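Supplementary notes (optional reading)

For those who missed the lab, this is the record we used. Protein: TonB-dependent receptor plug domain-containing protein. Length: 787 residues.
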Amino acid sequence: MKIIKIQDILLTAGMAATGFAATSVYAASDVESNEHLVEETQEVVVVDQADDGLTSKTIIDREAIQNTPDGNGNMTDLLKSHVNVRFEKDAENGFQGGEIKPASVSINGAPTSQTAYMVDGININNDIDPHSILNDGSIGVLPGSSSEQAYFYDSSMIGSVTVYDSNVPASLGGFTGGVIVADSLFYSGVDRVSLNYRTTNDHFASMQMDDTVREEYKKGSDGYDAELQPKYQKDFVNLVIEQGITDEIGMVIGLSRRQSDIAQVRVVDAKGTLDEQDQTRQIDNVMANFRWQPSAEKSLDLSTRYSSYESGQFYADMDKNNFIDQHRAYGATLTWQQPIVTGSLKATASYDDFNDSRDSNSADAKEVLVDDKLYRDGGYGNSELRQRNTTVKVDYTSDDFDALGLKHRISGGLASTETKYNFERFSNVNQQVVVSIPDWEDMVTHADLAFAGNVDTDYTIYSAYIDNSMTVGNWSFRPGVRVERDDYLENNNVAPRFSTSWQALAHTRFIAGANRYYGRSFASMKLAEGISELSRDTTRRFADIENFKTPHADELTFGVDQNIGNFTIAARYIWRENKDRLVLRRTTDLDGKRLDEYVNGGDYHVDVYTVQVSNIQPWVVGPTLWNTTIGIDWLTTNRADLEATQDPEESVVLDGEEMTRREMEGKINSSQEEWNVRLGIDMKLPEYNLTWSNKVYIKAPVQGYEEIGETEPRRFKSYEFDTHTQWDTQVRWQPSTWGNQDIYFQADLLNVLNETRRFGTQANGNDGDFGLYSPGRQLWLEVGYNF
């Protein structure tokens, strides 16, 4: 076991030093003589310090999206370089290279469910069941395709992505981590069509595995979720049309399909005959946006969107049990913006419909045990989960005005979101476990029944906000407040927001803030109550929900921005205290009957330290332009993510020290990497229409613990897997052909060094445990045509 790989640090430091030193030699003499090159290609990923640094946000614009080496081309793939963003440790599993579903992300150490997603100013979080907690585990009758973001956007349809990580303005709510805001493409005044094709497969990838799983890996998994994926083929197609209709009206239409076929060996008849068949994954996106702009100050935007994810699955050891889990989302947003006497007014109305469904070929599932061998047959019926959001909001921003010796700009707004939830099970679902003994009648040892029926619930949240951006001399202030009320918990949540900045010197600015953020809705909890009643399940207790508090996070921030020559340096410290998390706890009564209940608990704190350095103007080296960035972050937290059955106050011994289970989980902090180093070195060769983008990530060891022996109290030992260095590179050649037409060829090589790291262990029966590893080297090829 290695605590840290020194050669990785030296390699990355050497690359950074080479990039900075080499470009520094030429910058002073060449920037002035090559100003035309600099003007043509500016830095494309910026930490936006608008509002005099009062808001900490990072904007990834269209060009940065295009030049970021990524895999599946979704929105969260673009966030790997953000210093406040973490991916859960098993987000990239090398055994599941065929998957295309977006990964979940955590901001500032918060749970992934506490990241807010927005598109075109509207929240698009799927709050039905993103972590599959509605299903009690006894019988698999619920769809399994949910994710925190309801729309699985293709990055080709996104104009920009903005990440708010601290000092978030009062206009944004519904999170304790941060906010990811996507703006879809709107007509920019230029008519064009973009068409591209992107592909990869298992032959373009390298995979590390232990000998104990090698033979099993060749045929795939016994389960329905294809945990082992030896063969896969991914094909992505995107089309974007931007067209002016009149001098004042323009439209953008986008279509995309992402398809993955994953080969698995499975039983195909009652005799146990094995054959190879494909599981499938497919994401479709459709976008149609219209903009009417009668003047520079007035605009009417209509954005429509559709996203569909289908997962065609089967149990490898069950005949005739195919089923399709599908997630669909569609919606529309209408926005009118115009000036009024003292400022500008923006009115927005939207509707979104999210749907998770399961289409199975049977509603009867049977497990038959014959001579110690288990045979399965049948399926788990058809069911549907649905969420519908209707939002109306009005935002106002005043013109700048002077009062009491300060310059002011006031922003305020009102919003209401009504959300309706529905669950429907279309038929009774039966599950039996049968023991079959020759010359004896089959014996049913266990049976479950899920009843058909329909559950409807609803939930409305009202919000209002106001803030005032004020400046006087070298000081800027933004006091504000956000007030929210829901009609389920009936809590009045008041979230004060405050940030300030001081331009101490010409190139030195200090930033500070104190804020409170209230968390997401409680849809899954409310819907679970109705589903329990439908299923005649009396094990979950909901009576105390009326007394629940809304989860919230209190934040203090301090930072400094410093410009030195052609470098800008941003250092930040963020302190978060997270309180009143809603967690599910499972106990048993005196009769041994299971009892599930939701409780407020699991408070934790987070300390985040970040430093980012980047060049302000591109460095000029001969005919090339270079942008270099480096980001370092350190995160400490005592967050404990315990399973429902684990007692947080249970006494345990970790590495010889007695503590509670909650303290052990918080100390090991296996849910987060402690530190990360992110390096970007991007080159442009304008004369030949060539770009070369590089991202290098060095990640802290993954921590964990395992039980040693059966003692009382239970004893555990901690472990660390290796640090991990990953270098992703992209080369793009986009020569002009004729007129305004061009074709481009692109190759993304992820994990150039082919270095993998172990992040977990999985049992494999009598064959021994095997390690779970991050993906190895992967090549993606892409070709596109723009006209």
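If you only remember one thing from this example: The chain has one domain: 6-786.
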